[in-house]
Amino acid sequence: MNDDNERDLGVELARLQQEHRDLDAAIDALHHSPAPDLLRLQRLKKRKLYLRDRISYVEDQITPDIIA
Questions:
Q1: Contact (CB, 8 A) for 56 and 9
Q2: Is the N end or the C end of the chain the one with fewer CB atoms within 10 Å?
Q3: What is the rounded distance in angstroms from the CA atom of residue 34 to the CA atom of residue 38?
Q4: pLDDT of 25-36, one tens digit each?
Q5: Counts for the chain of helices (H) and strands (E), in that order
């Protein structure tokens, strides 16, 4: 893997992690609202799960398994 590709993955990883944290805060705030919008809550949770999967994929690309 070249340096540019690894740097791009690092930037993408940081962006995904930040969005994941932001969604976590939004979901928490929505849970504590007097009348939470359940459909919006469900969509935010789905997006958060997608981000978690994408974060795992990018982390695997940065640090691949080494078979010894």
A1: no
A2: C
A3: 12
A4: 999 999 999 998
A5: 2, 0
For residue 52, how many C-alpha atoms fall within 13 Å in the half-sphere facing its CB?
A: 8
Measured CA to CA in angstroms, residue 10 lies from 48, 57, 66, 67 at distances of 19, 12, 20, 23
Domain boundaries, the chain: 3-61
- Contact of 40 with 54, CB cutoff 8 Å: no
Tokens matching residue 45: 């949770």
Q: 8: Cβ–Cβ under 8 A, 6 or more apart, which residues?
A: none
Residue 32 DSSP symbol:
T
Which residues lie closer than 8 Å to 42 by C-beta, 6 or more apart? none
